[in-house]
């Protein structure tokens, strides 16, 4: 590390990065390639789509299935994932980090992708081929495009959301704290947004999973998050005297978990609610966890809604979150539907939840609207149509 820092004083950054990649590759080449599953066969179709490599919250797999569902036999799709955690999201094939980092696998994967697929959706600018070409996916984009494949870029949120812009826009933004995380995300978002903007200017589609990201990429196309309504369907809430309130912080800082827990501790002490924090719960156990809840508090700082809120709405639970007027209006303009999430902020969360606990009819009415909203906007038909339209227009 010290040698690399010193080298940056005398050599161009790109050269230093290239030398570092070469050194890593030499180290990895001396290691045996761990056992791995063979690359999957993809059925013959006019368009063969690959989505990867992050599969964030299972969305890569869900988008692949949505494209096939809408386009039918015209499209065959697969999701590739670098398997970094144990949450158990479905994919079509994937590898752990040691395989992803191995040059032998990287070369084989590149040959497989180029020879198998016609279209690729790259998530979060993460490279499909490890560090083979660059630290992000710009090298992969060049290789795929030169090979004749059509490429789209998809972003999920913190990958391209500019913290400084978010802090100006949102009064409770977690990025008003200028720490190492904020600075790291700021540099990443500026770099990726610059590439995405140039990519879009050259005719490449840029997709975003949540409507708030139009502030960062105004020319992007909304590719809504997808959940399976049937998987999350649950019996109606039993309307307990003390409602069970759950909060599942995938990222405590971005969800505002500290604020949530303080407010729920206050209500729990008054015996208004029973509070449960869900953390580290595998994906296959989350439907049961939500079914055992009455109210789900999602997040209080970001001004959006995503996969977790959609899952809770699909389960018919009352969802409380800070969505914001801008996102609500964007969804209404594009879909004709109102987002049935109860609005709350850090200033009034305890009051909002207490009011819902005191009036189960109001809470039940809002909860009852959730499953219909998810089926209309987030069951995959909208996202599948977005992808199918691109695939049909660009199939050779």
Detail the topology: elements first, then pairings:
Blueprint: H1 2-10, H2 13-29, E1 47-52, H3 59-71, E2 75-82, E3 93-95, H4 97-100, H5 103-116, E4 119-123, H6 138-146, E5 150-155, H7 163-169, H8 180-201, E6 206-208, E7 221-222, H9 229-232, E8 244-247, H10 252-255, H11 257-269, E9 274-277, H12 286-291, E10 295-297, H13 307-314, E11 318-321, H14 325-335, E12 342-343, H15 349-358, H16 360-377, H17 381-394
Parallel strand pairs: 1-2, 1-4, 2-3, 4-5, 5-6, 6-7, 8-9, 8-10, 10-11, 11-12
Explain what you see.
- 46% of the residues lie in helices and 13% in strands.
- Helix 3 (59-71) crosses helix 17 and helix 13 (307-314) packs across helix 16 (360-377).
- Strands 3-2-1-4-5-6-7 form a seven-stranded parallel β-sheet, with helices on both faces. Strands 9-8-10-11-12 form a five-stranded parallel β-sheet, sandwiched between helices.
- The protein is α/β, with parallel strands linked by helices and 396 residues long.
